[in-house]
Amino acid sequence: MIIKDVLCPFCGCLCDDLAVEVEDNKVVDVKHACKIGASKIKGHDRIKAPMMRDDKNGEFREVSYDEAINESAKILANSKRPLLYGWASGVCEMMKKGVLLNEEVGGIIDNTASVCHGPSALGVHEKGLPTGTLGQFSNRADVVVFWGCNPVQAHPRHMSRYSVFAKGFFANKGRRSRKVVVFDVRKTDTANLADDYIQVNPGEDYMVLSALRAIVADKADVVPETVGGVPKEKLVEVAEVMKGAKFGIVYFGMGLTQSRGKYKNIDNAVSLITELNAHGKHSIIPMRGHYNVTGFGQVCAWETGFVNAVDMSRGIPYYNPGETCSNDLLMREEIDAAFVIAGDAGAHFPAQSIARMGKVPVIQVDPFHNPTTEMANIVIPTKVSGVELEGTAYRMDAVSLRMRKLVDVDFPSDEEVLDKIIAKVREIKGASS
Amino acid sequence: MELKATFISGRTVDQGCNLENKTSKAYFDAAGYCEMNSADAGKIGVEPGSNVKVATDFGSVVVPLKICEGNPDGLIFIPMGPWANAVVDPNTCGCGMPGFKGIPAVVESSSEDAPTMPQLMARLK
C-alpha cells in the first residue's frame, strides 16, 4: 500500500508531499523525502520496554509501564524544582499535556529552542518580526539571503521546495528568478550554490548587519573600509542588491543565534529588514530545526503567554530567559529532577550542563536510546509521532499541518503517558495536602 | 605543533540521519570528527583520519580529523552532538543560549582513542 501526501516528521520544512510504501504494517520505502526524512521514517532500533535503575552507572532493569509511570510521578510530585525539557519532536496534543503537567508540579517547562532559536524569540520581543509564509516567499522572492544557516545540510529540501529552485507565481523561472546571497563564517555547501558568498569573521555578524543598515540609510560614508572581515565595497554591493529587491527574504540560523551577540544579532537583523521595507517588500524568518519546535512555541504561548522557559513555581507563569532556560538552571544547580521528552538534552547541551543532570533523577520519555538515556534513571518508550501517531504540527513559518499515522504499534503515545503521570501526580499531591 | 583556532559546531545531513540512531557507529562517524582546511592540517602535521585533540577553556575531546576546504584558516568545525559538547561554552550571557560557536580552541595531534558516545556520557555522571 502506498500512502500519499505524507508529512515528514524531521525538520521545520514539514515537507507534505512524501509517498510512503507500507507492507504488513512496516515501512518499506519512502519516496520524495530527503535522506534525513527517509532515514527517520524508515526507523531505527528502539527501546523495547520501560526501564529503571537507581544508580546511573548501573544496568537498567525492565519494568512495567505502570511502575515506570508511578515512579516518575513520585519523583516529579516530590521535586521542588523539576525541569521539563524537550517537546519539539512531538505533536501539539502532547505539548498541551506537558504544559498541564508543569502546572501540576510547579516546575519549569523549556523546549529545544533553548539551544536553537530561543534568542530569536528574544530578538522578536525587542523588534517584532516582519515575516510571512514559505508559500509567499516561494512565489515572490527575487532576492534570497541565507545568513548563518546551511539548508543543504540541515533542511535539505528547503531550497528546492520553497526558497531557491522552486518556481513560483511571480518567481516563475525558479532559480533564474532569484539572486541568492549567503553570509557565513565558512564556505558551506549552501554558499557553493549562491550567486554571492560573503565570508564574515566568527562572532562579527552584528557589525556586518550594522554596516548594511548604515549603507541602506545612505550613510555609507561612516562605514570603515572593512567590517567583520568584509570589504566595504562588497557590503555596498550587497546592500544595493537587497535594497533593489522587489521581494527580499532573509532566512537565518544558528550562525546568528549561537554566536557572539546571540539575540542582539536577531534584533539587528530584524531592524535591517524593517528599514529595507522602506524600499521594497522584505521579510525574515528563522530556519527552525525540529519539525514541531514551532508548535511548542504556539502551544506554550496560548497556554501560558510565553513561548518557552516558563517557570510555574509561583503558581503563575513566569518567564525570564537567562534565568529560566534549561542551561542557566542546570549551571546554577537549581534543578532537583529532570523530565526529558521528545528532545535529547544529553546530546545537545554543553557537557557541564549535562554533568549537573547527572546529579539528579532523570526521567526520559523517548522511542530511542540516546545520550539522555545514558544519564536517565527511568526510561519510558513511546510512539514515533508522525509515523506511528497522527497529530498537529507547525511548520517553520507557523502554518499548522496535520501529521499522518503510517503504521500501528503497541507503544503508548506521549500524550497517554503524560495523562497517566498527571493523574498520578494529582493523586500524590492530593494525598499530601 | 598546535593550532590556535576558532571552534564552531553545526548540523550535517549525516548527523541528522542518525539523530535517532545515536548508539551506532554511524552516529560516531557522523558527529565525532573535527574539520579544518588542509593548510591548517598541514600546520599540525596530521593526516585525515588520524586523531586530534581539541581543547578549549571548557574541556577537551579527541576525534578524527577531516578536511574541508570551505573552512577559512583557523576555523574548525565539529558537528553538533556529544563530541562538540565536550568543548562548548556553557555560559549563556544571560540569554539562555550557551556558546556553541566562536570558541577559542587549541588543536594538536593525539595518539589517544576517540571516545564513544557512552564513554563521553560516563565522564559526566
What's a concise summary of this model?
Chain A has 18 helices and 21 strands.
Topology summary:
The complex is a heterodimer of chains A (433) and B (125).
Chain A: E1 2-6, E2 18-23, E3 26-31, H1 35-42, E4 51-52, E5 61-62, H2 65-78, E6 82-86, H3 92-105, E7 108-111, H4 118-127, H5 134-140, E8 143-147, H6 151-154, H7 158-163, E9 179-184, H8 189-192, E10 196-199, H9 205-216, E11 226-227, E12 230-231, H10 232-243, E13 247-252, H11 254-257, H12 263-276, E14 281-286, H13 293-304, E15 310-311, E16 318-319, H14 326-331, E17 337-341, H15 345-348, H16 351-357, E18 362-365, H17 371-375, E19 378-380, E20 391-394, E21 400-403, H18 414-432
Parallel strand pairs in A: 6-7, 6-17, 8-9, 8-13, 9-10, 13-14, 17-18, 18-19
Antiparallel strand pairs in A: 1-2, 2-3, 4-5, 4-19, 7-15, 11-12, 15-16, 20-21
Helix pairs in contact in A: 2-18, 3-13, 3-18, 4-12, 9-10, 9-12
Chain B: E1 2-10, H1 13-17, H2 25-31, E2 34-36, H3 38-44, E3 51-56, E4 59-67, E5 75-79, H4 82-85, E6 101-109, H5 117-122
Account of the 3D structure:
The complex is a heterodimer of chains A (about 425) and B (about 120). Chain A has about 425 residues and is of the alpha/beta class. Chain A has two domains: about 45-115 and about 290-430, Rossmann fold (3-Layer(aba) Sandwich); about 120-285, Dimethylsulfoxide Reductase, domain 2, CATH 3.40.228. In chain A, about 35% of the residues lie in helices and about 20% in strands. In chain A, the strands form five sheets. In chain A, strands 5-4-19-18-17-6-7-15-16 form a nine-stranded mixed sheet. In chain A, strands 10-9-8-13-14 form a five-stranded parallel sheet. In chain A, strands 1-2-3 form a three-stranded antiparallel sheet. The model of chain A has no long low-confidence stretch (mean pLDDT about 95). Chain B has five helices and six strands; from the N terminus they run E-H-H-E-H-E-E-E-H-E-H. Chain B has helices at about 15, 25-30, 40-45, 80-85, 115-120, and strands spanning about 1-10, 35, 50-55, 60-65, 75-80, 100-110. At the A-B interface, helix 1, helix 4, helix 6, helix 8 and helix 11 of A face strand 1, helix 1 and helix 5 of B.
